[in-house]
Amino acid sequence: MDLREEILRRQDPYINEILKKSSVSILGCGGLGSNIAMSLARCGVGNIYIYDYDKVEYSNLNRQNYDMADLGKSKVMQTKKKIEETIPYVKVYAKDLKINWENLEEISKKTDIFIEAFDKKEMKSLVFDFFLGKKGKQLIIGSGLSGLGDLEDIRIKKIDNVTMIGDFRTSPEQGLYLPYVGVIASLEALYAVKIIEGEANGK
């Protein structure tokens, strides 16, 4: 049994093989993105593309997948490093850049599944507008993940090729706490895995 098989032996071997060949892009590497990236790596997604231009600061440590040694360093590069140290067979492609309409054209060619992981409304809107209705592409967005939340308020909405997950009402002014941010991050990662498995099986 090789390393990948040993690590993933508590998962379905058939799904493991599907995930091994899959690719997902994560736009943003903060509270959502850094946790989504590690979650997908642990599930066995073979290729993960991550994009962000930000650096790690103290206020990130309460909910983002970083530690004191990462302060002042590139979020995408530190996320890549953590994944490679934890799950060494996953291929992580890290790009340190600020997302805009022009570079989304190039980014959109890399994979067919994209996860939006920003906390600024204007960035969420940019990504939504770019991908909505784009043939052959699937976008997953987190919307409303602040405060301590109410789990019964979490919903899933679909608009064409865009899936939105969250409570659709909370805002960052209510505070950002890992338990609730982490729930939304896990659901976004789960939905990506379900898309991969579903497409492979013609669902």
Structure report:
The chain is of the alpha/beta class. It has one domain. The protein is 38% helix and 18% strand. The chain is built from 7 helices and 7 strands. It has helices at residues 3-7, 13-20, 33-43, 75-86, 101-107, 121-131, 178-200; strands at 23-27, 47-52, 91-96, 113-116, 138-142, 155-159, 162-166. The protein has a 7-stranded mixed β-sheet, with helices on both faces. The longest helix is centred in the C-terminal third of the chain and has 23 residues, at 178-200. The chain starts with a helix and ends with a helix. The mean pLDDT is 96. This is Thiamine biosynthesis protein ThiF. It comes from Anaerococcus prevotii (strain ATCC 9321 / DSM 20548 / JCM 6508 / NCTC 11806 / PC1) (Peptostreptococcus prevotii). One of its GO terms (biological process) is cyclic threonylcarbamoyladenosine biosynthetic process. Residues 18-200 form the THIF-type NAD/FAD binding fold domain. GO terms for molecular function: tRNA threonylcarbamoyladenosine dehydratase; ubiquitin-like modifier activating enzyme activity.
Key words describing this protein structure:
203 residues, alpha/beta, seven-stranded mixed β-sheet, 7 helices, 7 strands
Write the layout of secondary structure elements.
Blueprint lengths: L2 H5 L5 H8 L2 E5 L5 H11 L3 E6 L22 H12 L4 E6 L4 H7 L5 E4 L4 H11 L6 E5 L12 E5 L2 E5 L11 H23 L3
Parallel strand pairs: 1-2, 1-4, 2-3, 4-5, 5-7
Antiparallel strand pairs: 6-7
Helix pairs in contact: 3-4, 3-7
Organism: Anaerococcus prevotii (strain ATCC 9321 / DSM 20548 / JCM 6508 / NCTC 11806 / PC1) (Peptostreptococcus prevotii)
Pfam families: ThiF (PF00899)
InterPro entries: ThiF/MoeB/HesA (IPR045886), ThiF_fam2 (IPR012729), ThiF_NAD_FAD-bd (IPR000594), Ubiquitin-activating_enz (IPR035985)
